[in-house]
Every structure is written in C-alpha cells, then in structure tokens.
Amino acid sequence: MSPAESSFTAGAGKAEVRLPDSLFPLDGFTSVHDPLYVRVLVLDDGRTRLALTVLDQTSVSDEQLARTRETVHRVGAVDPPDCLVVASHTFSAPHVLPPERAPAAERERQVRLADAVDDAVARATAEARRTLRPARTGFGRGSCRIAVQRDVATPHGWWLGADDAGPTDDGVGVVRIDGADGHPVAVLVNYAVQPSVMNGSTTREGGRQVTADLAGAATGRIEERYGDGTVALFLVGAAGDQAPYLTAVRTTVDDGGTPRRTDAHEGGHLLAELLGERLAEEAVRVADRIRTTLPTTPLRVVHDRVTVPAQVPPAGLHALRPSRRYAFTPDGTTEAPFVVARIGETVLAGVQAELNARTGRALREASPFPATCVVTMVNGAAKYMADADAYDRITYGAMNSRYGKGAAEAVVARIVEVLRTPGAV
Q1: Nearest Cα to 56, choosing from 71, 36, 26, 41?
Q2: What CA–CA distance (Å, rounded) separates 416 from 362?
C-alpha cells in the first residue's frame, strides 16, 4: 500500500453566513429568501493538505481571498497556496467589498458582512478539520439540460437571451469522497451554468432578496438525500455564456435595439428550486453509481500563469448594447493565473475568468485525464474570457472583458501542456 493510500483522509464542514436584519439594506438587497453558506472540504495524504472552500457569493475579491486563505490556514492548518477558494457565483448575494471601495453609507455594514462571512469560513473549516477520517475517492459523469446558450442574434447584433440551438455543455462532473463506512463525506458537482435565475429580480415592493439560487437548491437537495455527514459543493464550470434555462427576468430587444426586461418577482424562486432539483437528481444518480477507491497518487496543487492579449474594458455596463461595429481596443498583454489540483484520478483545472462552454469542453476533451473538471471563479474573479468566435460575433461576453481575442485559446493550450507534462500533476 502506497503512502497516499495508507494516510488519505477527508473532512467537510458547512456553516451558514449569519446575516442579521440590521445589515440591510446593503448593495441593493433588503431581505433574505434563503441562507448563504460556506462549505469547506479538507483532504490530507500525509504530505499535502488541500482545502476546497466554496462561498455562496457572486465573486471573491483579492482582499477577501487573502483573508479566507489566512483563516483556512489558521483553523485548518492548510498552506495558503493549497487552499482553493471558489465562488458559487450566485448573482443574488451582496458583494463583499473592502470598506474603502464601498459607498460611504454602507462601509460599516460592509465590515459586518465581511466579518459574517469570515466567521462562517472559520466554523466550516473547523468542522472539516474535526471530521477528518480515512477516505476513498471516485468520479463519474452525467448529463443535465438546465443551461442554455445566452448569446442570441438580434437585428442589431448579438445580445443576451436564450438560444436552444446554441452551444452548451450538458456534462455533469461528480466527485464522490467516501469515509471508510461508505457514506459520502462530500459530493462535488461541476456544471456549466451561471446560478442566476434571480439575477436582477426584485420583490413587488422593489427590494432584492438574498438567495444562493439554483446552486444552493442543488447542493441542499444533495445533502438532504445523503443525510448528516455529507457536504455538497457546487463548482461552477465554463459558464460565461450559459444561463439557466428559466429565469425570473426575461430580456428582449425592441425594434430600436434597446434591451427590455420583465420580472416574475417572488415567483422566480420556484424556478430556481426546480432547476436546482433537476441538477441534484442527476448528481445523485451519478454519485450512487460511483465506486470509490483508495487513491494511488498523492495530492497535488500546481499554480501557473500564462501571458494573454488584453483589451480596454467598457467604461460601464450601462453603455453596452447589441452592436455590429463595436471597437475592441487592444491594451497590450496581461497575466491569466490558473491552478490545477489532482485528487486521486480527478483533476480540477481552475481559472479566475469566466470561460465559455466551448472553451471548457475543448479543455476537457484535450486533457489526458478522463476525470477532468473545468472550474471557473477560482481564487478571485476576472470577468469574461470569451472564445475567439465571440469576438467575431461581438457578443456581450466579448465586449464586457479585459481580455483580448485569443486569450481563452492561450489559456487552454497552457493548461493542457501542464496536464500532458509527465510528473507535473
């Protein structure tokens, strides 16, 4: 039995982010529909201790990333480079901002919000460390159709909507980690959809409600299915151009080229529950068929970066419209960081930027590891990194990006090069 086999342990924890009523209004939100959580998975093979931390947030700033890693290091004894921090990418949670970047009227509330999230990170990490025990891992892949291509052609150019014929990635990657008793310690679900059913939706009174959206609905249902002791973590895939099939807000473009919106208000939460349940059902179906085994390779975490073309981002989102003549302005080059983590036979390829579904699929298909999950919103946020074709079509993702045409392809090429290098992962 190898060292990796004899000492591989896993523990997981989950903690609610406690948001008191006195915190609101904040960042446009006035109440909580369903709780936000922090979920932490800690893995240890005797040489490396790896932590995967998922926050129910839209994105994670550099400042919050540093704080989260410090907390996981202090509480969970995980070296900061071996702590991967992922946003579930719900669009319906207040942004956690450094006080100096927050509106003056909200700075005190932002401090309390950050403290609430940091406290949940500490509690979830402590639970994960406390529950470390001998474990086994396995991987499976299924299929689910709750995402749709959101780039649609209009008479005025490409815009946001729903294109049933457009490219998607229906693959659901599932990592199951069992304790010695065969009960799941954790179930990781990797799927390419933005958890944005409630994005931009308000109550009939005009306020926004906090919700973990379909990612929260899916992970909650998986945890209910397996009972106490199991934590489910949602890892958002290459979903830059992938919207939920059903959303509370409907977007259309009128004859003059102006986007118009209609809102289902509180009724939209039912849509999030339904789509989350569908994803959960497929994840459970796949997980129930996975045979976990003792890993024969050590845990590995590899950080790297690639130089890619940059462009000047838009001055403001309100200025973006469907266009056939948008002027992309080159801005030299920039660095795109990425991380590759190996857990048994599973490889997590993580990037900050939001990749398109075709990019994620291309990376997975080019990987020499069949059990490859492409994860975005990892260790920070960097907005969209669209594929080259999106720049030719002038899509929303291409316009709303600080990366230039060809960046996504360069990132894929470098990650695949690392994956194919013997002994690198």
Answers
A1: 36
A2: 10
Separation of alpha carbons 275 and 271, rounded Å:
6
pLDDT value, residue 4: 41
The two structure tokens encoding residue 115: 């403290």
Alpha-carbon torsion angle 243, 361, 233, 305, nearest 10: -110
Does position 256 have pLDDT exceeding 90, yes or no? no
Q: Is 187 inside any structural domain?
A: no
Structural domain of 310? 300-420
- Residues 400, 383 contacting (CB under 8 angstroms): yes
- Please indicate whether residue 170 or residue 319 has the higher confidence score (pLDDT): 170
Distances (CA, A) of 193 to 72, 166, 319, 332: 27, 14, 25, 31
- pLDDT tens string 119-164: 999 999 999 999 999 999 999 999 999 999 999 999 999 999 899 9
Residue 200, phi-psi category: left (phi > 0), alpha (psi -120 to 50), beta (remainder): left
Number of domain units in the chain: 1
DSSP 3-state assignment of 229? coil
**Is 382 contained in some domain?**
yes
Tokens of residue 198, six digits: 């409630």
Tokens encoding 207: 């306020």
Q: Is 119 domain-assigned?
A: no
Evaluate whether residue 356 is within a structural domain: yes
